[in-house]
Amino acid sequence: MKFLNDLNEEQRKAVEYNSGPHMVVAGAGSGKTRVLTYKIAYLIEKGMEPESILALTFTNKAAREMKERIKAMIGKKAEKLWMGTFHSIFARILRAESKHINYRPNFSIYDREDSVSLVSNVMQDLNINLENLTPNGVQHKISFLKNQMILPEDYEKEMSSSAADRKFHEVYKEYQNRLFMNNAMDFDDLLLKPIELFTNNPKVLSKYKKMFKYILVDEYQDTNKAQYELIKILSPSRDKICVVGDDAQSIYSWRGAEIKNMLNFKKDFKDAKIFRLEQNYRSTKMILAAADSVIKNNAEQIAKTLWTENNDGEQLTIIRASDEKDEALQIAKRIKKEVTNRKLSLNDIAILYRLNSQSRALEDALRREKIPYKIIGGVEFYRRKEVKDVLAYLRVLSNQDDEESLLRIMNFPQRGIGNTSISKMIAFARRLNISLFTTMARVFEVIEVKERIQKNVKQFKLMLDKYIELKDKLSISELTSALVDELGILKMYKEENTPESMARYDNIQELLRAIQEYNQENPKGTLDEFLAEVSLVAGIDQYDEKANAVTLMTVHSAKGLEFPVVFITGLEEDIFPLSPRFDSDSKIEEERRLFYVALTRAQQKVFLTYARSRYRFGEVAYQSRSRFIEELDEATYVEVNGPGSRRAGRKKKEVIDEYYQESYDDFDQERRSLRVGSKVSHAIFGVGKILAITGSGDTQKVTIAFENHGTKNLLTKFANLKLI
Ligand SMILES: Nc1ncnc2c1ncn2[C@@H]1O[C@H](COP(=O)(O)OP(=O)(O)OP(=O)(O)O)[C@@H](O)[C@H]1O
C-alpha cells in the first residue's frame, strides 16, 4: 500500500498493528489525525467492510474531513463508514431502535437553549424557585449529572435533605418526564439512552456488536463517562479497538470529560499496547520549547517528549496593552504587518481567546481596520432566533408531541393566542393527560379560553394539519418554502426594514438554501433525519477554512486546528487562567492544558497579548499578567510594549499614531457631550440618569442612577455610554 510511505516509522507501526486493543498517545501536531485516517484506509484495503468500521470523532467537521481524505485514498466505498460524532452516530442508532426504549423514531433533539427553556417551564409549572440557580444553572447541573450518568433516582439517593436539593430533584425528575412526554431527547440523552437500550436489550446489543468489527475513537482524552461506557459495551470481543489521544490536551472536564479514561486504558483493556508519537510536524522548535516549558508545571501527565525537525523559528512576542481596546488595535495593526512581511493570506491567522465576550473589542478593531474576519462559535447559524422559529415549525410537523417547539410557534407570527390562553390549554392538557397538540383539536372544550381565541387556535391547528399531511408528499425544501410563504415571515421582516430584520430575512433565505442543498445531497433524506442533523451541528462544523479572513475563536474551538500565525489574547489572571483564586489544582492544570493547546496550534509564530485593565462586569478591573507568561522559558520570548504601556497615559500624543488618536478622539467626543441630568444607556445596566461627573480625561468618572440597577460610579472611558 503506497500511502503507508507518508507515515513515519512509529505512525506506521500504529497503523499496521492489529493484534489487540491499542492506544496511540500522541503529542500535539504529531499526526494523530493522520494515523486514524490512514488506519481506517489500511483496514479497508486489507479487506474489512467499511460498514463494519465505527469511527467516533469529536466534531462533525473532523468526521467530514477524515472521510474525504479516506475517499481520496481508497475511493467511494469509504462513504459506507460509520463515522461521526458520538452524538450523531448514536442518534442514528436510537432512531432505528426507538421502539425498544418506548420512543418514536421521529423524536426531537433539544439543544442547550431548548433544554434551558424546558427547565424554565418546569420550574414555573411546579412553582419552584431555586434561590441560587437560574434555569440556566439548573440545566447546567442536570447536564453535568447526566454526563456522569447520575439520573434523578440516583441523585435522590445521594442528595442531602436540604430544601434546595429536594427542590432541584423535583425539577430534574419532572424535566426528564417532560422530555419523555414530548418524545424528545436532550444532547446528553443521545449518550445515555443507547446505554439503556443496549443494557436492556441483549439482542439489539449483539446485533451491533456483530456489525461493528472495529472501533476507533479520536480525542479519547475528552470522552466522558457515558461515552466510555458505550465504547466498553460495544467494543467487539474487546480487541478490535484503537483509541488516540493526548492527555496534555484534555480540556473538557467541565463538561464531564474524564482524563482518567486515557490514564486507565491499560487497565480497562487487557494486553493493550501503547504507541507513542513524539515527532511534531507542525510547529517550530521555539514554539515547542515554549509549550513544553509551560506544560511541565502540570503534575498529572503521561511522560512524553515532543521534538521536531522543523526550523528553530522565531521567539514568541509578548505584547502589553493598556486595555482591551488597545489590545485589539495592536493586534489589528500587527496582522497587517504580518500579512505583508510573511506573505500570508488572512486565513493563515487565528486570534484565540478564553472567553467569548473578549471577541467584541477584537471585532470592532478588525472592522475599523477593514480586516475581514470570521468568527466561530458566536451565535451559530442554526441557533439563531429566526432559524429556530422555522425549525420549530418543522419539528412540530415531524413530532406533534414536541411541546417546547409548539409553544415557540403558537403565537409566532402573532395570531392572537396570548400567554394566558396558552396556560389554560396547558392546564387542560395536564388534567386530561393529553398533549398540547391534542388539546388544540379540542380547544372548544377549554371553556376558560375566550371564543375568539378558540377560533384562532382552531385555525392554527388546521394549518398545521395541512402541512402534516403534505410533509410526506413534498420534498423538505418544497414543504418549507410553502410554509414560510404562508406564514409571511419573509414579508414581515422585509417590511420592518431594520438592519436586524434584514439580517433575519437573509438568514431565513439561507436556511431555505441549506434545505435545498440537503435535498440535493440526500434525495432520500426524511424530515426527521434532516432535523436530527441540524440539531447536532456545532459552530466549528460550519467553519469555512477557505474564506480569506482572519479566524476568531475560543481556544476550546481551536482544538485540532493549525495556523501559521496565532494570537493568544487576554493573558491575564482571572481570564486565562480563569478564576485562579477559587480553583483547585486540577482546574489550574486544565487551564494550563488549554494554554498548551493554544500554543501548539501555531506553525510559525505566536503572539501573546495582555491588557493592564479591562472592562468586566460593568467595571474597570486592573489586571495582572497571567502566570502562564511567567512560566514560559525566558529564552523563548521577547516583549514589546505598545502604546498601551503606562507611559502612554502621560505622553499620549507622542506615542500613539494617527489611528489611536482617532479612537481616543471618539472617546473625547462622547465624554464632552455628557452632562449632569443626561439620560444614558449602558450595555449591562440599561437606562439611567447622570447624577454627577468628576475628574477629566482618562480618569473622568460618572455617577449614574440606573432605573433597574441602583446607583453606580463608572469610568467614562470604559463605560461606553450612549446618550438617549
Ligand atoms: N509523517 C508525516 N509526514 C509529514 N507531515 C506529517 C506527518 N504526520 C503528520 N504530519 C502533518 O503534521 C500536522 C499535524 O498532524 P495532525 O493534525 O494529524 O496531528 P494531531 O496529532 O492530530 O495534532 P493535534 O492533536 O495537535 O491537533 C499536519 O499538518 C499533518 O499533515
TrEMBL record:
Stretches that traverse the bilayer: none
Single GO MF descriptor: DNA binding
Q: Name one GO biological process term.
A: recombinational repair
Isomerase in keyword set: yes
User: Catalysed reaction per UniProt?
Assistant: ATP + H2O = ADP + phosphate + H(+); Couples ATP hydrolysis with the unwinding of duplex DNA by translocating in the 3'-5' direction
Say which enzyme class the record assigns: isomerase
- List each copy of the UvrD-like helicase C-terminal domain by range: 285-560
Keywords assigned: ATP-binding, DNA-binding, Helicase, Hydrolase, Isomerase, Nucleotide-binding
Q: Which domain of life is it from?
A: Bacteria
* Cellular component terms per the entry's GO annotation: cytosol; DNA helicase complex
Repressor as UniProt keyword: no
Q: What is its EC number?
A: 5.6.2.4
Q: Which residues take part in binding ATP?
A: A26, G27, A28, G29, S30, G31, K32, T33
The record's listing under InterPro entries reads: DExx_box_DNA_helicase_dom_sf, DNA_helicase_UvrD-like_C, DNA_helicase_UvrD/REP, P-loop_NTPase, UvrD-like_ATP-bd
UvrD-like helicase ATP-binding domain: residues covered: 5-284
Q: Which family does it belong to?
A: Belongs to the helicase family. UvrD subfamily.
Under what name is this protein listed? DNA 3'-5' helicase
